[in-house]
Amino acid sequence: MASLDRIDRRILMELQQDGRITNAELAQRVGLPPTSMSDRMRRLQKQGYIKGFKAVLDPEQIGLGLLVFIEVSLDKTTPDNFQKFASAVRKQPEVLECHMVAGGFDYLVKARLHDMARYRVFLSEVLLSLPGVKETRSYPVIEEVKDEGILPL
Amino acid sequence: MASLDRIDRRILMELQQDGRITNAELAQRVGLPPTSMSDRMRRLQKQGYIKGFKAVLDPEQIGLGLLVFIEVSLDKTTPDNFQKFASAVRKQPEVLECHMVAGGFDYLVKARLHDMARYRVFLSEVLLSLPGVKETRSYPVIEEVKDEGILPL
DNA sequence: ATTGAAATCACTCATGG
DNA sequence: CCATGAGTGATTTCAAT
């Protein structure tokens, strides 16, 4: 149905590193005529390999210097708390990611805040005030060792 | 020196949602002449607000259906293990993120793999074989509730 | 900071091999 | 899948207000 050849992988890799590369330049890099390049781009988007393009901002520069991970445990007695929690957390702009996990807790939340003072407010007013939240553990990030959004191909 | 006005914020928001929007279209949306738009774009990049642009791929589609978070504890007796660990982990393509955290463990690693079989190999051959790694705890993701790379402005 | 005009560049779409 | 050319639209640069 939809398998990727070597050239497709090259294209996706280049686009992950520079999402604004022009069709002509990209075609030249992978050794394809520009018109064939356009075809592949359209196909890769239509088949769902490429979900979109976005600018990558510097969190520090826009005043979001604090990165925090929070482990959240829910009260298991009422199962629809899971839905409520999920839908509430999706609306919070400070929450960049939220994943339901298997293991010692229920959700892992990744959030960016201005500083610890704002985080304290966020934790008590937002996270802890959601229904069914039993317990949270916070892990402030000391150093971001690696953070690319580049998937291996 | 470098503060953001309302229009800058609009621009950054639009670019986070569509990194391939044309200068003309973006100018129209925020109500600016195209040439002024170009100026702002250049300034926002030069000042470091915009670090770059990238394509967002679908992990499932390219065969990376398993998302795992791993808590890593290091042996604290030899401090340069931290550097060794960090530099080794930066080279692993499966590792999308790695953060040094404050709290009950030392590093939080986010990795995407094909499946559990590949993860088992990755855990034993890569993570556990790094010098100084004392203990790891793995949390496979059951459901990705939220995962945008969009920073609030 | 905006406007306008001109030159360059890139993309698309048609044809074809 | 590749090549070519015409037509369209975008970007950049320059000037001027």
UniProtKB/TrEMBL annotation, chains A, B:
PROSITE patterns linked: HTH_ASNC_2
Domain HTH asnC-type as annotated: residue spans: 4-65
Gene3D superfamilies linked to this entry: 3.30.70.920, Winged helix-like DNA-binding domain superfamily/Winged helix DNA-binding domain
PANTHER family tied to this protein: LEUCINE-RESPONSIVE REGULATORY PROTEIN (PTHR30154:SF0)
Protein name, as recorded: Winged helix-turn-helix transcriptional regulator
GO biological process, one term: response to amino acid
GO cellular component: cytosol
Pfam families: AsnC_trans_reg (PF01037), HTH_24 (PF13412)
Record bears the keyword DNA-binding: yes
Molecular functions (GO terms): sequence-specific DNA binding
Keywords: Activator, DNA-binding, Transcription, Transcription regulation
